[in-house]
Amino acid sequence: MSRIGKQPIVMTNDGSVTVGGGAVTIKGPKGERTLPIPVGLSVSVAGTAVTVGRGDDERQSRAIHGYFRSELNNAIIGVTKLWTKTLELSGVGYRAAMNGTSVVLTVGFSHPVTIAAPAGITLSVAEGKIVVSGTDKHAVGQTAATIRAVKKPEPYKGKGIKYVGEYIRRKAGKSAKAVGGAPGAK
What we know:
Elements: E1 9-10, E2 16-20, E3 23-28, E4 31-36, E5 41-46, E6 49-54, H1 59-81, E7 83-90, E8 95-99, E9 102-106, E10 113-116, E11 121-126, E12 129-134, H2 137-150, E13 160-163
């Protein structure tokens, strides 16, 4: 039995889970998500506990048991609290501004870069930080990674777009020419 898959998911009072039609529908104050139940798995709701079970010991069922439980847990967290990722810009003249639902980045290119928010994702800009939020954990992470990929932090000065709290491994620059010592071959 999957160690992750057999753990029950404890719901909060502000969310609800319904099972029907081969899918699980999760409703909460921040939105609604529907996940199809994979073949070989079953979902049961008892009070505030949601459990994922499997009917057989087939390889496919064992493989997706823990995965689907994690997906379901992430969906429940998303519709009750929202998933967020925060990015920060560091560099002289690096700016971000909102244009409707898109974010416009000025990060050292000859042109501004515009990134549109996918469905279900909210972008906001405040004080050199870009906040990506939404109910789908994968979509939030992918959108944040797309924004970061526009100008990754470089290792010499750290200029670029990075996640808040991300450690950038720094490199030493070129050292000055050595003075004195034995002369080289002429």
